[in-house]
């Protein structure tokens, strides 16, 4: 019995030794942990768009898928500017990407002006101006600038080459 009494006394002394150091941290984690988890789940749902579905808000009009509208220009064949007796020609087939579908009527009405602006510019080009990807990029940018000047206030967002032949 003396062994049991000694063990009971030791346990009693250890239990009464004072406040536990880890007890307050455990309580804090037990309270703050679930709150932090709820905040993180809520933030994730808000950023993920789940809250919009619960609120019944309609999707903004900007989220609608934009269907591009293309306007094909007639084929153009121009002689290029050259210093020698040898003639060089450029055959070009271009499609214009319109910013708004409503601008197609403006394109039809302004087609003679667009073709004229392109013809005047293209006739001043030399074969060297069209070489390499840099030359094609400059041509695209210049045609885009000219067509947008011709069809204002309508807007063309891109010039697409369907066919380009330099001979």
Helical/strand content category:
alpha+beta
CATH topology of the largest domain: Tetrahydropterin Synthase, Chain A
Reading off the top of the CATH hierarchy, the class of the largest domain is best stated as Alpha Beta
* Binned strand content: 15-25%
The CATH architecture of the largest domain comes to: 2-Layer Sandwich
H/I helix tally: 5
Query: H/E series, N to C?
Result: HHHEEEHHE
How many strands?
4
Uncertain regions spanning at least 5 consecutive residues: none
Q: What's the overall geometry?
A: elongated
Head-to-tail CA distance between termini = 115 Å
Describe this structure in words.
With 167 residues, this protein is an alpha+beta fold. The chain has two domains: 2-55, no CATH class; 69-166, Tetrahydropterin Synthase, Chain A (2-Layer Sandwich). The chain is 51% helix and 17% strand. The chain is built from five helices and four strands; from the N terminus they run H-H-H-E-E-E-H-H-E. It has helices spanning 2-15, 23-48, 50-55, 104-123, 132-150, and strands at 69-72, 76-79, 89-98, 156-166. Strands 1, 2, 3 and 4 form a four-stranded antiparallel β-sheet that branches. Helix 4 crosses helix 5 (132-150). The chain is elongated, with a radius of gyration of 38 Å. The relative contact order is 0.13.
Summary, kept brief:
This protein is of the alpha+beta class. 51% of the residues lie in helices and 17% in strands.
Based on the model shown, name its key terms.
single chain, 167 residues, alpha+beta, Tetrahydropterin Synthase, Chain A, 2 domains, four-stranded antiparallel β-sheet, 5 helices, 4 strands, 17% strand, elongated
């Amino acid at each position: 019995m003396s062994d049991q009494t000694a063990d009971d006394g030791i346990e009693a002394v250890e239990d009464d030794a004072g406040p536990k150091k880890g007890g307050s941290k455990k309580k804090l984690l037990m309270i703050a942990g679930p709150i932090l988890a709820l905040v993180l789940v809520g933030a994730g749902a808000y950023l993920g768009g789940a809250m919009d579905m619960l609120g019944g808000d309609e999707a903004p009009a900007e989220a609608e898928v934009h269907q591009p509208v293309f306007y094909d220009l007639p084929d153009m064949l121009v002689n290029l500017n050259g210093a020698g007796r040898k003639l060089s020609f450029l055959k070009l087939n271009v499609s214009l990407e319109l910013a708004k579908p409503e601008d197609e009527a403006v394109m039809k009405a302004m087609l003679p002006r667009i073709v004229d602006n392109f013809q005047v510019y293209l006739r001043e080009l030399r074969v060297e101006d069209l070489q390499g990807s840099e030359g094609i990029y400059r041509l695209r940018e210049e045609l885009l600038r000219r067509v947008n000047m011709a069809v204002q206030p309508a807007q063309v967002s891109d010039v697409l080459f369907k066919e380009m032949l330099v001979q």
